[in-house]
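Exercise 7.
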Amino acid sequence: MKDIKYIIADNMKLYRKKQKLTQMKLAELADLSVDSIKRIQGGQRSMSLENFLRLSDALQVPLSFLLYEQAEMPELEQVSNILKDRSPKQKKFLLHMLQEMAEEMDKLL
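Solution. The predicted structure, written as tokens, is:
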């Protein structure tokens, strides 16, 4: 199993890039130094719970999204991640499609 510092570092980088944030902008949003961001993202530094919360807020993701390797993320959080930043109409459509697929799968099994 990968060290939690590296999992957080990888996820931090992933979500920072998804949001098109520089390390400097993330530092500003999280009220942390750029050096701290670089060291956390490099897996060279652990952080306090307070700073972890600040990063989560700055990246606009739940804390748990930073804790799991992408392949290990619980299913409900994967669905939540897919729905994030979608319009209400898109969310309704995606959830309807998921429901339809689940019902058809139940018929086959």
